[in-house]
Amino acid sequence: MPTGQDSISGGELLLPPGIVLSKLFPPVVRPETVRRTDLLARLDAAATKRLVLVAAPAGYGKSTLLGAWVAERGADRPVAWVTIDGGDDDPVVLWSHIFAALRRASPGLAKSVGPEAANPSMLIDVVLRRLVNELTELPALTLILDDYHRLSSAGGRDSIAWFLKHAPPSFQLVLATRTEPQFPLAALRAHGELCELRAGAMALSADEASALLNDRLGLDLAPSDVATLVARTEGWPAGLYLAALSMDQVEDRHEFITRFEASNRHVIDFLVDEVLEGFDQDMQEFMLRIGVLERLSGPLCDAVTGEPGSSERLERLAQDNLFLIRLDDRAQWYRFHHLFAQLLAAELHRRSPELAPVLHQRATAWHRANGTIGEAVWHAFEGGDLDTAAELIEASWIHFTNASQFRTVRDWLGRFPRSTLDASVRLLLVEAWVLSLCGQEPEAGVVVATIEDRDDLSLGPLRDGFASGESSLSTLKSIFPWGDVGSELRCGRRAAELEPRESPWYPLSRYAIGLGSYFVGELVEAERSLKDAYALGLVGRQWLVVGSSLAYRSLTAAESGRLVDQHQLAEQAAAFAADHGMEDVAGEVHVALGVSLAARGRLEDALPLLERGVRVLESWAQPTELADALLRLAHVLHSLGEVDRAGAVLAQARSIVESCPEPGTLPERIAQLEPSITDTPQAGESLTVRELEVLRLLAGPGSRREIAASLFVSLNTVRSQVRVIYRKLDVSSRAEAVTRARSLGLI
Fold first, then answer.
1. Phi-psi category of 220—alpha, beta or left, where left has phi over 0 and alpha has psi -120 to 50?
2. For site-directed labelling of 162, which of 312, 519, 617, 746 has its Cα 20 to 30 A away?
3. Which pLDDT band, with edges at 50, 70 and 90, does 225 fall under?
């Protein structure tokens, strides 16, 4: 199902959605960090455990511990690192980052097709299964998912759980989380496959606290004061460090320690002012303003604060403050510890509640100008700027859906009040496209009906490149006709009238016209339109349009009797799909190649391709395309002697076609195919020319291998043909086949 474009016209810089590289680096180990010798030893001892769970509340040093472990042990065993954030609730985004991390750690995985190239519904069944198979052939590998608690979507969590269950023994998963993961921990524990480090183990001992407070931070506290702090914070590392920051300028540190409350919450409340007061006024204001950012860089912070010099301030702050974490090895990106970021947000709200929206708007503008559109959208929503959020989504949604990030776009739309969506035909069009791409026909139909009731469809041009609202709607209905071939053609032709030929959306209208013409039997027009869509798609780098056009041109050539063209186009489509990572989204390519192989007598080679094509097309939920593939599959199954399966597949195709408002020539094709599948053939009937040729050779002395060589086909092809001959003649051996053929006058 080809959709969209790889570039949006217009003056705005827009990079395609991709990997946030800073998420793939563990935190840099600071000189002030206390080495957790016992915990590192426990991690080392867990090398054979399937799951390592580091579970503790905020501020217990989970990331710091694992970062130190990677720094010390990474050379001994490849380690992949991903820091989870809110964007990873889209499973495609999550696994795109995991794939990138795994490839960094183990370049042998580079051949695997990533999740961004597959329909999201096939993430587990295709992409992750393939990844598991590849991992079985590689050396031991560890994947660390930091901040796993930030993953709130069921789809993302379920995919991780499935992967853990099916991963090979050489693979190890490490989770750093504040909450309990939904894994079968009891079973893993019982089988000795689980290592657990929880808050009790993560708490600092008196000796470790003394090393932090006295040796690293130079506070020169008495052992009794250290013991008091450890007792009152229960060894909570963040609380101890906050206390250290607060005591840096305090004369009577003993008296300060005696005023501590016992709970973490009270520690935070007590220390928020104390911590900030430890910095000069300029640095306080700087931290409060950049606290609205999830990721920090010098240029970004310059834009948000409105002042230069942020890179130097960040570097100085990173040297003095353990709560600022370096995210890469070039000191370009940082983030605040989540706990500290919450403190900054609370304090900014208390001091200057009107300032946060302004800061978010500045961050939006910077990310927009630098092409990090996902973060620009997030800041626009956080700053309450719904108009800018709408503009960004209208312009960029196709880039995210082309990367299979449908969940991301739907989550954005879900942040608007329903009344805002219904009032904007531009946003309604985005919603209709995304729902259709997700195969949700009823929901998409409701939105399309709402759009059709509007009187402002002539507005345009749209930010996503469409000439008008009517053009977007016409293109949508032509690409997602839901079994109405007449509508497919009408809307495709209308879209072609509305879009100029140089429009990035024009190739889609030509493709729709070609596909609709194929389904109504207008093969000359189908070839002309699909050839046009192919050429325009190449120019516009619209790979799905190109690959799908080649596939249906092959099928059109087959229907026209142009067998040489059929074979060449099918092989060209398959090679193109493989080169551009489309094998898991372009089901029609597998169908075209399978039909081509079947036409050459290679039925056993054709069958798995047709089955794979059907599976992919099922995920797109377009009835006519799926029914066409099922009919092709039923024919091959019947030719291979799998009569019952062929009948079941034919029945499925018939049911789908009967549900279509206007299915084109599909009912006639079913009527032609049905008798040969549902009726039991009489002996000697329905032998093809090639089968008769094989039968005559069976009467001679040559082996099957020699027969294959004389026909210039594979041995498997001859075996398949012989099996079909036996079934049609109702025999079970070569001798019986020859005898029956002679009695029927066939040889």
1. left
2. 617
3. very high
